[in-house]
Write a structure and sequence with these properties.
The protein contains one helix and six strands; from the N terminus they run βββαβββ. It is mostly beta strands and 106 residues long.
Length: 106
């Protein structure tokens, strides 16, 4: 992974509460095994609102980036299943819950 940055909605633990903010992070902060997608379209799912609030049933690990649904193009992949340039649609399959979601901008 290179040192590119991305902007995202980041949910973090702040003492006994959670806080959400727009953050610019280095790509090294992405969890291992990620597939980076240039998101063309997303939606606002009710689970996104719960993740935004740090709901433990949705945002399973903090820090966390919500975004349950996304459509876009693969920029980088650490998975053998996807290659750069692939068009993808992701809905469910733990995106925005157990893994970082589509509310980020590479």
């Amino acid at each position: 992974m290179n040192s590119r940055q991305f902007t995202c909605l980041l949910v973090e633990q702040d003492g006994s509460k959670t806080k959400s903010s727009i953050a610019t992070l280095p790509s090294e902060r992405l969890p291992p095994g990620n597939v980076t997608i240039r998101v063309s379209y997303s939606s606002l799912n009710y689970k996104d609102a719960l993740a935004y609030q740090g709901h433990p049933g949705i945002a399973k690990h903090l820090p966390h980036v919500p975004g349950i649904d996304a459509v876009g193009t693969v920029l980088e992949s650490q998975s053998e299943k996807f290659k750069t340039g692939d068009s993808v649609i992701v809905t469910g399959y733990d995106l925005g819950q157990g893994t970082w979601g589509g509310w980020s901008i590479p």
